[in-house]
Amino acid sequence: MSHRESAHVFTRDDDRDHLRLLLRIARLYWIDGLDQKEVAAAVGYSRPTVSRLLAQARARGIVTVQVSHPVESALACETRLRSRFGLTEAAVALDRGGGSAAAVGGIAARLIVRRGGERAVVALSNGSSLSALVSAMPPQRWPGSHVVQMIGAIAGADTDAQLVDSPELCRRLADRLGGAHRPLPVPIVVSSATMARAMAREESVRTTLELAGRADIAACGVGAVDADGSSGRILRAYATPAVDAEVRRGGGIAHLAGHHFDAQGRHVPTSLCERLIALDPARLADVAVSLAVAWGREKVAALHAILRTGYVNALATDEPTARALLDFRP
What we know:
It contains 14 helices and 11 strands. By secondary structure, it is an alpha/beta fold. It has 2 domains: 3-59, Arc Repressor Mutant, subunit A; 72-327, Rossmann fold (3-Layer(aba) Sandwich), CATH 3.40.50. The chain has a 7-stranded parallel β-sheet, with helices on both faces. The protein has a 4-stranded antiparallel β-sheet with strand order 6-7-8-9. Helix 5 crosses helix 14, helix 6 crosses helix 7 and helix 7 (128-136) packs parallel to helix 9 (166-177).
């Protein structure tokens, strides 16, 4: 290229022909994937001149570079959740507009696969979120693993309720992991505090709950409490109007493993607690991965409360819920 050509290219920046040249070179290089030598051959200039023209295209904003990925916003939410709530793990599923059960269940299952292993002990509570987790679990070869109930069964459950009940979830997850499961052959709630204490002393119950308290991973659903004190599907059969009134008086807005908590993450004792057969939620604080799995705007206040207990150190949710949770102020 002659000195005259070079002067024409580099001094007449406002010339439309020059802009056309910059566009052509930029497309050949960044869109068509030619290297600088190939671009030089295509436009009839030297490779050093092409290099300078490409730099000029960047400087003039003809070419902009954006580094991004659809998962980037979810990763940012995970970082903020870990920082805000002191979590060791946060898994946020992308908002694809197609429902969250499969997405959150899948990301929770992957977390368990990553943190578990051939001899892992996994404890489960109950609920639809854990059913989604179990359904999404890819088959593993963990012959030494054990899946343990951390809460009793829903007494007299209908078919739909059985699908989210702890015994069925534990059996299904053990099948997926290729290991064994340890049942807890008692109901969630019994008729009296005296009976609950007696059952808790039974060897099969005591050893199962102790194993759950020493699990490598514990996965729990999070229940939300309505304005009237109603605790939803899992506890509906046991929460009488008197219990609902106790929950309201105590400011209960969430429940975890059958126990109620207020907006500050403080336990709300009720007469129902005395009749529960379940792992004490405080034991979750000693589990390496104590995972809450939940999503939906109706769960945001409840999730916030449970994360404030200090009992769970991991969360699996979807992006809309994560953003609402980060913005939430009780």
